[in-house]
Amino acid sequence: MQCLANTRILICLLGYLTLTFCGKTYGQSTAVSESLKKISQEDGRLNAVIALNTEAEQQAKEIENGTPTLLAARPILVKDNIDVVGLPTTAGSLALKDNVAIVDAPIISSLKKHGAVILGKSNLSEWANFRSEKSSSGWSAIGGQTVNPHDEDRSPCGSSSGSAVAVAAGYVDIAIGTETNGSIVCPASINGIVGFKPTHGLLSNDGIVPLASSQDTAGPMASSIELASVTLSAMMLDSSSDDKRQIIEGLQNLGSGPALNKLRIGVVANTLGYDIRRDQILESAVARLRQAGVGYLESIELTPPAGFWEDNYKLLQYEFKRDLNQYFKSRRASVSNLTLGSLIEFNQDNAAQELRYFDQGIFEKAQSLELSESEYQRIKDEGHKVTREQGLDAVFDEHELDAVIGITVGPAWKIDLVNGDAFFGPFMSSYPAIGGHPHITVPGGKIADLPVGISFVGKRNQDDVLAQIVYRYSLLENNND
Fold first, then answer.
1. Is the pTM of this model over 0.85?
2. What does the mean pLDDT of the chain come to?
3. Candidates 159, 189, 214, 233; catalytic one
4. What span, in angstroms and rounded, lies between the C-alpha atoms of 139 and 126?
């Protein structure tokens, strides 16, 4: 018997059984046992996992012996800002170390209903990377610094860093992350996996530590578009409406979508021109699509008006303070008296651990922000206008496009606990994050052996259509290999 000591959980690696998923047998031991073994052997280096579920193997046995399910005892790691019964939901902060969930977040209940085994919690950038403008992605006071498995001196990006690294390192094939702007797609791209940020509002945000409700969403991170899509379908709770039923069915039947030669796709020129190596990765993807008969529109420009990003930053600060204070009020006694103001004091009182590498400047800005409700609403409406009616929706309608593509983000930068993150070049996350559009990133190529992702962005509430397009593209990629 070999045991793994984690921050708060001790789990022993025992037992063997057989797991079948979509006709594929995983041999003598369960996928759960194999995942736990790999974490025990490798996570001392990568630091992607915060806590493990001590009942995971027993739960896998019960699922396997029961009625066949969609996810068939698949082990899944969950970002540590999402409620899972019996585990703390810490957002990486020592202030929430005793915030043990007594009810699953709805998306977790739905995953369990479909047979998923929640293996445990993955590390994240503390407070979803919204505490300091000098933060290091993947660092939290609870979990320490997660590192990139392709180069352990480099960043995993954030804030869903542990989830991405866990998939990239082969601990699990599926993990759950959350995104406000880039926190699923950036770590997925930089770690060389698939990230699926769904249409805003498609999934419930209940039971998730908030950042900003007008942009927050959970989403799957996986080793393939097929697994990401079926997981998203399993996370959806309300299948009573025709629209949601159609999305669920489409996500579970990716081959039912239109042929590539029936599609029109635009290229976001904003992501080009920074680095010829990035440009070549995108140009190769476009060439494969064109060869497959995709209608192609060059040089889509998405350029917001002056002051747009400053206003959006104010919106995030406003919603963060409002939403976080409301979240605390809804929790158990151990954290129900917390507020953003008391968190700032907590960090000051525990500076040796919480502030050892970087400050809490964003917290302080959010706490002191003076913004009227009417001004907040104006900024929110303007954000949707720019990214929807004057942005992505306008591009889709005017040019009759089914999707747009671009470079998700550049390769991973060096971890720097003094100066913080150092993004290089333009990225694709902001317009779909603010506009609420579905956004999928898939591996596109490498620069100096570091992964770079290709982004596909689609129409709101057509997540199934976008997934079908990406699936067709992935077949081209596989044939090319």
1. yes
2. 92
3. 159
4. 6
